């Protein structure tokens, strides 16, 4: 069985102020062309098809075009909803669409019901695990405390139970949208932390032949059988060093995995430049970045006049301008935002308590803060579902 593994299309998303719809359409064309040329048996899309619960009309039209083109190839597609998608909206008409070979898996209750695709060696069972917001699905899976590891573990128990009842030799592929331990995040993924613990161990997925992950935007190999495809396009400057790609997976008769990484089309390279304004304007080594999308971090101790206008004379595609003066870390002018960089909501709340009263929260208070943050996150997720 040969299939393409992709995820995190984020249709409708812009890159800073640049409309990415054209680049997204080019990727869809590339995906369809690759499926045809490499004679794949299936395409799997591991969530975040759209960038938000209510996508713009142009994004919906592009998705509709993608479905028609894939169905027209006669190549089955298995697709799950991610944390950016509205599972209800994405899943509308799933039964009818499935008759055309496009299988949408958006219902948590259906995680143990696979899409069965045959090849010369028997069936391959594709199990779709849509993004599982712990607070919203814990009752469905019968777990006491909402947490990513608990609900994904319970979902995988259903997968393994179904697989155990199938003929010997049935191979299995799981699509999941999650933050798995060992994965490297970027700035463009929406935080899914619950209780301070977003990551789940790769061992949660034991017992299946291949796990097609979505959520993290960098292509990554956690194990030979557990991989992220990453997003096909960059959506933040933190992805400047990413090689955007999809996985071409050959699943052998014995469940062995052979993987080939296929590059995606790049609309424009990214560059992160740092230095004083005068250095950036004069450095001949930076000539190669003049046609790139640029994020410039200025280290001038005094903010220069008209920095964006001057930068765009040399780098016309400058999209982001950051000021980070070279100062001693103890300088009171060092920004609050820089002091908070890289800290979680839980850590920031605990630091605030320590700052106000001189001592950090005890174990009980830490639990109260965690529960409060979880409740806010669950309320936000419930509103997204209801929209």
From TrEMBL:
Stored Pfam families: Metallophos, SbcD_C
Domain Nuclease SbcCD subunit D C-terminal: 267-355
Signal peptide coordinates: none
Record-linked CDD domains: MPP_Mre11_N (cd00840)
GO molecular function, one term: exonuclease activity
Residues of the Calcineurin-like phosphoesterase domain: 1-218
Function according to Swiss-Prot or TrEMBL: SbcCD cleaves DNA hairpin structures. These structures can inhibit DNA replication and are intermediates in certain DNA recombination reactions. The complex acts as a 3'->5' double strand exonuclease that can open hairpins. It also has a 5' single-strand endonuclease activity.
UniProt-listed InterPro entries: Calcineurin-like_PHP (IPR004843), DNA_Repair-Maintenance_Comp (IPR050535), Metallo-depent_PP-like (IPR029052), Mre11_N (IPR041796), SbcD (IPR004593), SbcD_C (IPR026843)
Species this chain originates from: Streptomyces pyxinicus
Protein name: Nuclease SbcCD subunit D
UniProt keyword terms in alphabetical order: DNA recombination, DNA replication, Endonuclease, Exonuclease, Hydrolase, Nuclease
Gene3D superfamilies membership: 3.60.21.10
Protein's UniProt keywords contain Hydrolase: yes
Superkingdom, natural source: Bacteria
Quaternary organization: Heterodimer of SbcC and SbcD.
PANTHER family: COMPONENT OF ATP-DEPENDENT DSDNA EXONUCLEASE, NUCLEASE SBCCD SUBUNIT D
Similarity comment text for this entry: Belongs to the SbcD family.
């Amino acid at each position: 069985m040969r299939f393409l593994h992709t995820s995190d299309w984020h249709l409708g998303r812009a890159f800073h102020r640049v409309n990415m719809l054209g680049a997204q359409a080019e990727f869809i064309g590339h995906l369809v062309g690759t499926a045809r040329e490499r004679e794949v048996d299936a395409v799997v899309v591991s969530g975040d098809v759209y960038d938000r619960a209510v996508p713009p009309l142009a994004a919906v039209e592009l998705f509709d075009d993608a479905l028609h083109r894939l169905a027209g190839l006669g190549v089955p597609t298995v697709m799950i909803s991610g944390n950016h998608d509205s599972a209800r909206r994405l899943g509308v008409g799933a039964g009818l669409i499935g008759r055309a070979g496009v299988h949408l898996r958006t219902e948590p209750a259906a995680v143990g019901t696979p899409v069965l695709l045959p090849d010369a060696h028997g069936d391959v069972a594709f199990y779709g695990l849509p993004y599982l917001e712990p607070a919203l699905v814990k009752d469905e899976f019968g777990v006491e405390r909402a947490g990513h590891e608990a609900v994904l573990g319970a979902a995988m128990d259903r997968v393994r139970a179904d697989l155990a009842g199938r003929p010997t030799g049935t191979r299995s592929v799981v699509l999941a949208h999650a933050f798995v331990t060992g994965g490297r995040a970027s700035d463009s993924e929406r935080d899914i932390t619950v209780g301070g613990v977003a990551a789940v161990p790769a061992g949660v997925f034991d017992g299946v032949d291949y796990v097609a992950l979505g959520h993290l935007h960098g292509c990554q190999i956690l194990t030979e059988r557990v991989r992220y495809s990453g997003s096909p396009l960059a959506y933040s400057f933190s992805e400047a060093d990413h090689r955007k790609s999809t996985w071409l997976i050959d699943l052998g008769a014995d469940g062995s995995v052979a993987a080939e990484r296929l590059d995606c089309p790049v609309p424009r390279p990214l560059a992160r430049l740092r230095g004083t304004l005068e250095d950036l304007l004069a450095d001949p080594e930076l000539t190669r970045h003049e046609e790139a999308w640029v994020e410039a971090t200025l280290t001038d101790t005094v903010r220069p006049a008209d920095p964006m206008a001057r930068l765009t004379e040399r780098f016309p595609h400058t999209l982001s301008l950051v000021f980070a003066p070279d100062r001693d870390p103890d300088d009171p002018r060092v920004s609050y935002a820089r002091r908070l960089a890289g800290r979680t909501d839980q850590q920031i709340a605990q630091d605030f308590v320590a700052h106000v009263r001189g001592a950090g929260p005890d174990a009980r208070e830490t639990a109260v803060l965690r529960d409060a943050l979880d409740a806010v996150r669950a309320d936000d997720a419930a509103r997204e579902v209801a929209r």
